[in-house]
Amino acid sequence: MPKLRVGALAGWRVGGVRAKERRADGAVNELDGKVALVTGSSRGIGAAIAAHFAEHGARVAVHGRDKAAVNAVAERIRGTGGGRAMPVTADVTSYAEIEQMRQKIEQELGPVDVLVANAGGNQVMPGPLEDISPEDWRATVDGNLTATFLTVKSFLPGMKDRRAGAIITMSSAAARRPSAYSPVPYTAAKAGIQLFTQDLAAQAGPLGVRANCIAPETILTERNRQQIPERQQETLVGMHPIRRLGTPGDVARAALYFASDDAAWITGVIFDVAGGSVLV
What we know:
Elements: E1 35-38, H1 44-55, E2 59-64, H2 67-79, E3 84-89, H3 95-108, E4 114-117, H4 134-162, E5 165-170, H5 184-204, E6 209-216, H6 222-227, H7 230-237, H8 248-259, E7 270-273
């Protein structure tokens, strides 16, 4: 049997996944050559994910409905380290607008390799279920679960055709444990995203597409820093075994892992970025 030269393994890791080039600062470009779309990336967690992906080599489509905010994030990415980013706008509850966005990204950046379905939110305050209006219920479910479904529906066929792709969805720690103090439409929609992601992983895995779901706890985005009083922040810190609240960077680093080849044999996972406050 011929001896295998050590040099023959250069550029490869265990499992046959090629190692990425290192940057001048020693960091690895895990997403070198990849095209990524991060929905809901005009601020907060989404903006942090888009910037982090660009730092690690991806060509990033920054998405939102506020054109000025989207342009600002894309410009910031381009201005720090020369990352490549393009702004796109679309209502992710409209399949027609998502399809137009997909076509624009493919024309300017290329087919999407990594999809982060991050867009979502909640405007319903916690309270008795019977007090929730049908309009608030539909708006919350559509803005989270339906938006995730429609976005994946648009980008999944191309990934299947190419037999490669990574999809990351966004749930919430609020959907990981029942509570009388949760906003029910939001937690129901986010719990639906978790099972949707696992069904997606089971269907698309044989065609080379991975799907994983991140479930963050309270994250100190710019908005939360302003809206959550300091005393309440201190109370929330005490609910976490790791005694601090999360940052957008905590979620961005988790998303980078699932987007990269380091997670090449991981799919269907619901991953808590929660400082130990969710132990299931």
